[in-house]
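Hi W., the zinc ion complex you wanted:
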Amino acid sequence: MQIRCPTDLSAEEYVRTEAWKFIVVVRCPIHPNSNCRITRHGTYPRTIPEGVKILRIFCHTGNITFSLLPDCFSSRLPGTLADIEIVVLMAEAVARDLGCDCSPATANRILSSPGFATAVAEAGVGQKLFDLASDFRWLKRRVESVIAVLSAVAGLFPETFGNCRPTLTSFRTVLVGGPVLVRLRSVAEPRLHEIPPPVGLTPRFSRPQEMVRRPP
Ligand SMILES: [Zn+2]
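Structure:
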């Protein structure tokens, strides 16, 4: 299972500083009221950006491993939340130009429009993100995922986001100025396991293959 690893580091800073080597977990995040014995349990790699390692922790009391996903990274999708935010904001801007909402029903029209290709070309994104943003399926999955995330968050936190539409532009009016997806990791922390990827985390204990038993 995944646990949030709160951090202000960007993905590049996380890699450059090899931050996974310095993460200290003092209390078991799964059983915060127990005095579990917890130990480091290796790392696993992520592909984008190159060199990322995600720390695993083992709770000896519950015989469970969990991984610590830093806030900058998307869950269940390669890459970073910042990259996803850039391309979805572009899609929303093109949708406004086309006079439509950015929704699963309009995603094909938006992402295949000349205006979107122009926006990507003129945005000055790095070569890697430019290549990804030229992949229609990659884009469509991210646009649809973000709409699903924002819809879920609005439903779970109606007092904060109840008046928002499921767009980053709308959420930015509440989360003034900052990136939305990364900040939702902290704002929505109590309910992260009820929110879909790329912001939400793997549901607790619903995937038995992620629970590792110690050998007898
Ligand atoms: Zn524990």
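Residues 2-72 form one domain.

W.
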